[in-house]
Write a structure and sequence with these properties.
Number of helices: 12
Largest sheet: 5 strands, antiparallel
Helix content: 25-40%
Shape: globular
Number of strands: 13
Radius of gyration: 19 Å
Distance between the termini: 48 Å
Length: about 300
């Protein structure tokens, strides 16, 4: 029977209380939200925090709002709420694409956006989603807030920019005109971790060129959620199968997958290329279908 090492439990009723607790308890304290990543690691003794700070009563972090030309999402927003949000589906359909293939209803009812990002697992879906959307992360401490671009939020596998006396409180997604997004994933069975997945977001000019575009990959090694050469290849280019082929090849070149029970490194590299092409193709098609009607602000 697997059991975690001994720990002490605290329950915070507000963000300020949670941050104060972590500052007081030090680096051996961890926040717990849904617990679907942290608790299994504790049972395997891969994580041995001395203190757990339960933040499920921090109701001020449960929201999805549109303001100041951004979509702002509280860090405690559950997967189910991301899946069901019509606001997100309108502007960023990539969220619904991804959430439909994340785990199962039990996990989606409890797991949170903030918890997923802070786990910083290279196989985690929402990190690729947020990177494709050029998200920013709001990190709070007792001295104030700082905003960190998604590209700088993950500093390595299972490591983030959140300090020992800080807390991720919000994710911000910029609203830009004439854009859309998509997510494609290959998994061994429904709800499993990805063999490989790819998210793409594009924003178009009035004459049909790609003004900007991003791709985020998961499960093919670290540092694959912000591939700058992909963005450079997309900017100013006209959508075409040749372009998708070129960008897919760039994405594959920046992968470093390993052979495991989910497949060989060669197979995963091939999937990274093909899923990048599919995600870009879908995202562009969604923009085109929107422009045939009326353009919407954001990524709908």
């Amino acid at each position: 029977m697997q059991v975690p090492a001994p720990f002490e439990y605290e329950r915070a009723s507000s963000v300020s209380e949670a941050i104060a607790l972590r500052e007081r308890l030090g680096e051996e304290a961890r926040f717990v939200a849904g617990g679907h990543s942290l608790l299994p690691m504790m049972k395997l003794r891969l994580a041995t925090p001395e203190y757990l700070i339960d933040i499920n009563d921090c109701t001020e972090l449960f929201y999805i709002n549109e303001e100041a030309e951004e979509i702002r999402i509280g860090a405690m927003t559950r997967h189910r709420e991301l899946l069901e949000s019509e606001l997100l589906a309108q502007h960023f359909p990539i969220f619904r694409d991804a959430e439909q293939v994340i785990a199962d209803p039990v996990v989606r009812n409890r797991g949170t956006l903030g918890g997923s990002l802070c786990q910083a697992d290279p196989s985690e879906d929402l990190s690729a989603v947020c990177a494709a959307l050029d998200a920013s992360c709001v990190i709070a401490s007792t001295s104030g807030e700082r905003v960190v671009p998604m590209g700088d939020f993950h500093v390595g596998p299972y490591e983030t920019a959140v300090g020992p006396a800080e807390m991720l409180t919000e994710i911000r997604l910029p609203l830009r005109p004439n854009g859309s997004s998509a997510y494609h994933k290959v998994e061994r069975r429904a709800g499993d971790w990805a063999v490989v997945s790819a998210g793409a977001a594009v924003w178009m000019t009035g004459d049909g060129a790609i003004a900007d575009g991003r791709v985020g990959l998961a499960a093919v090694g670290p540092n694959t959620t912000n591939i700058e050469p992909v963005r450079q290849a997309l900017q100013g280019s006209a959508p075409s199968e040749d372009l998708y082929e070129q960008v897919g090849a760039i994405a594959a070149e920046h992968c470093s997958p390993v052979t495991d029970q989910r497949g060989t490194a060669e197979y995963k590299t091939h999937l990274a290329k093909e899923l990048t092409k599919r995600a870009l193709r879908t995202a562009v098609a969604r923009v085109t279908s929107t422009t045939n009607g009326a353009m919407t602000n954001g990524a709908g």
